[in-house]
Structure formats: C-alpha cells, structure tokens
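Please review this one.

:::
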Amino acid sequence: MMKELQLNDFQYDLPDERIARFPLAQRDQSKLLEYRQGIIAHRSFRELPERLPATSLLIFNNTKVIPARLHFQRSTGAVIELFLLNPVPADRLVSEAMQDKNRSVWQCMIGNRKRWKPDEILTKEIRFGEHTLVVRAQWHDMEQSQVRFEWTPGDETFAAILHETGKIPLPPYLNRDATEADKETYQTVYSRIEGAVAAPTAGLHFTPDVLSRLAQHGIQTDYLTLHVGAGTFQPIKSADVRQHAMHTEQVVYARQNLEKLLTHPGPVIAVGTTSMRSLESLYWFGVRLLNNERDPFTLDQHYAYLFPEDQLPEKREALAAVLTYLTQTDQTHVIGHTGIYCVPGYRFRVVNGLVTNFHQPGSTLILLVAAFIGENWRTIYKEALQNDYRFLSYGDSSLLLP
C-alpha cells in the first residue's frame, strides 16, 4: 500500500537564474555532484568513469527525440499546433509508426484547439528538394484528440516529414523557442531509436570520450529504449501525491538486456530516471508473468504497492520469467507500457545507483529521487544550490550511490 505523502514535503526554492536555459559548449564539462553512502563530493562529469563502482553495469536509454511540434495555419491566419504524443493505437511501436507512408494517426496535444473545426482539413506544403509535398491534418477522433495525417506524394516516411517541418519540443520550463542548435544538443550522442518527445537528459553529458573511458575502466554498458512522453513534465497538482495520475510510456527491451542483467555480478547503474523506471518496471513485468496475469507487459502506478514483501520473488526469478517468455514466444524484443510511480516507500528491485540531473520542485522525478536516497535528497539539493549547480534538462549532473 502506498503511504500518504504530502506534496509540500517535496518542494524547494529554485531561483529562476539556476535554470540552465542553454547547454554548455562542451557536454562533459558539466559539474557532477557525487553522493556516496551519505558523503557528498563535487566533481566534473568527465570524472564519472573513475567514480563509478568497479564492475558496474551502466544502462542507457537510447531513445531519440523527434521534432514533435507541427504548426498548421488556417485560412483565417490562426495557427494550430499539433504536439505528437503517441501513435494510434497506443500500443503500436513508435519506431514502426515513424516509417508510415501516405498516412499516420497520432494522439496529440492541440494548441488553439477551439479554432479547429470538426470537419476542417488543415494543409501545409513542404519542399522536398525538387518537389513539393502536401500534408493534410484532420480529426480522426476529436474526443480522444486523435489526428490523421495524410500526404501526397506518399512515398516519404512520416519521420522524413517531421524532420523537414517539425520543431524540437523543448521542456516548457526553458521558456524559449527551439533553435537550430537544439536539434543536436537536445539529443544524446548515443540516441538511436526515434520516438521521444523529451530527451533522457541525464545522458546529455556523455561524449564519445567519456563512453570510451567507461570501457577502459571495465564498466559494462547496455541500452534499452523508453520513449519519453510529454507526461514527464506534467505537474503534480494534488496535495496528496497518491492522487496524481501517472503517465504511461512505451519501453522496448531486448533479450540482450535480460541476459546481461541476469549474468552481471556487479551493481546496476541507471543513466537517468527513464532508465531507472524501465529497469524497475522489468521486475514487475516478471512478477505479472509469474502470477499469470492478463496483459503482463502493462503496468499501472499502483501495482508495485499491492504485495506484502514475503509474497514477492527475488530479482533473478522475476527477470528470468521475462527471458523465458521471450524464449517461449520466439521473440528477440518485448514491448511494455509502464506507468510505474516510484515514491518514498517504494523498494528498488534492480537498480543500485543513478546518474541524473537536478529536477523540478514537487515533480514525480523529485519523488523518485527521494524514494531512492531518502530524506538526504534535501541535503543534496541544498548543497547543489549553494555551489552554483545548473538545474533541469540542460543543467549539471549527479551520481547517486545510496
């Protein structure tokens, strides 16, 4: 059972000037606050390979941010913004939808929604080299905010259209328009699978040099894919955080992920809260398989709090259940949908350490950090503020080893 928690207990004062609105010129020049079993030290992110525990397994999220903001102009001059959230149906693989030709249906957040009439078709012309492509947007299901995109000629992929005309969706708290530079700086250097509408920002500090030195220090690495959704910025509005409706995100696991986790003898370090949520969800997907539950790869925000500790399997048994499922179904990957909600009282099953930025007051991410390291989160954030750390997506980093 999730215990009662008051939102006020997870607030802190974040001065506006501490929000990093632009990235540093060099990714790995950011600061790194190291928290190791209660002791705080201030370092540079370039030192991370030397500061990780020996024999660590570092897990990255290789999702790639898509230019998810599309603007259409009505004949009256009014601009309608379509912010892509997920393909329809919601369980469709995002990377598959990005390869659509001719048409694609997406659930969207819609700016200036009241101006867009039910039967109105929005059109936009896009130059593709020598030829012009016409994109049309119309309601697919108005109540569900689903929009159907069609384009002619139809031989270009939806991904190509987005890259030609879409805008990178920067976090709202940056309070600025995206620049051309953000197309590169708001992606991790290892991003590969398109589908996120927000970057897994803990990974923005990594450079090819840092990644190379991880290997030199015997640190193993692996990659999974969680497509970060706009819900990651959704504020908690209820005084009791249990009442918050947690967003759901699509995550893709490979057989290799399971095999590495089951055979690796050292600590597992998540790069970012999205990797942490993915890894912890993997345990609960295994529990659902062991319990023979329907839709075993769908996880809501309450499930992890339903069981007495003595009724839960060990990590190895739960992860082995997922690997067995892949073997029995002859699959190399499995798609999950997770709404896991890690708040104080949650016991972490897979992750031993976390690399993460500094998060917004009163956010689900602060709750996750507090769940992982306890009340010391306040000491860490106070220390970061006193030492001029830069906060939020383009800000500095921390290594948390409770």
